[in-house]
């Protein structure tokens, strides 16, 4: 069972709208017919007055000029157009992506891009982890102590060589 709120806006009062539209169109057409009849009557009167038989030229634009379209009819036409646009938009909303080639292609491209970026970040994280492990291993306190002991002069070394090595280090630093 459809509730009143479920009925699309464009359908609400469509009967009343149609009736109103018909009435406005009828009034407009009646007005036009009256004006045309009046102008034809004027022409026949003029024809009787004139002696020459040249047929009068009737320009439709001239006879219809000055006739105004009722604002009610314009409003109704605008509403009708709006309703039709809404209906079109509602239909377009139900776009089936699974059956559309362009959508499927875009989805595949997106999936590929996300896969590549995910793998790239995984590889980067792994490389960083390896670097950190190697740094921790190389800068271990026992390793550093061994490195210091290797560089420190031994008691049996020749003092001249020790001094020379120390001077070289100071000048290089
Ligand atoms: Zn699509």
Automatic annotation (TrEMBL):
Pfam families, per the entry: DUF4606
Domain of life: Eukaryota
InterPro entries found in the cross-reference section: DUF4606
Protein's UniProt name: Uncharacterized protein C8orf48-like
Organism: Chanos chanos
């Amino acid at each position: 069972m459809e509730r009143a709120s479920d009925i699309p806006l464009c359908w609400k009062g469509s009967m009343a709208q149609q009736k109103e539209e018909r009435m406005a169109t009828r009034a407009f057409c009646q007005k036009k017919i009256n004006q045309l009849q009046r102008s034809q009557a004027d022409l026949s009167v003029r024809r009787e007055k004139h002696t020459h038989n040249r047929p009068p030229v009737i320009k439709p634009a001239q006879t219809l000029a000055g006739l105004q379209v009722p604002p009610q009819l314009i409003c109704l036409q605008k509403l009708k157009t709006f309703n039709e646009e809404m209906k079109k938009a509602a239909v377009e909303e139900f776009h089936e992506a699974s059956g559309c080639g362009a959508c499927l292609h875009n989805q595949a491209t997106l999936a590929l891009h996300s896969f590549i970026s995910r793998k790239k970040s995984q590889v980067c994280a792994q490389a960083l982890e390896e670097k950190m492990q190697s740094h921790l291993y190389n800068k271990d306190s026992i390793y550093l102590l061994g490195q210091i002991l290797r560089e420190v002069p031994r008691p049996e070394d020749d003092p001249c060589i020790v001094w020379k090595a120390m001077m070289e280090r100071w000048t290089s630093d």
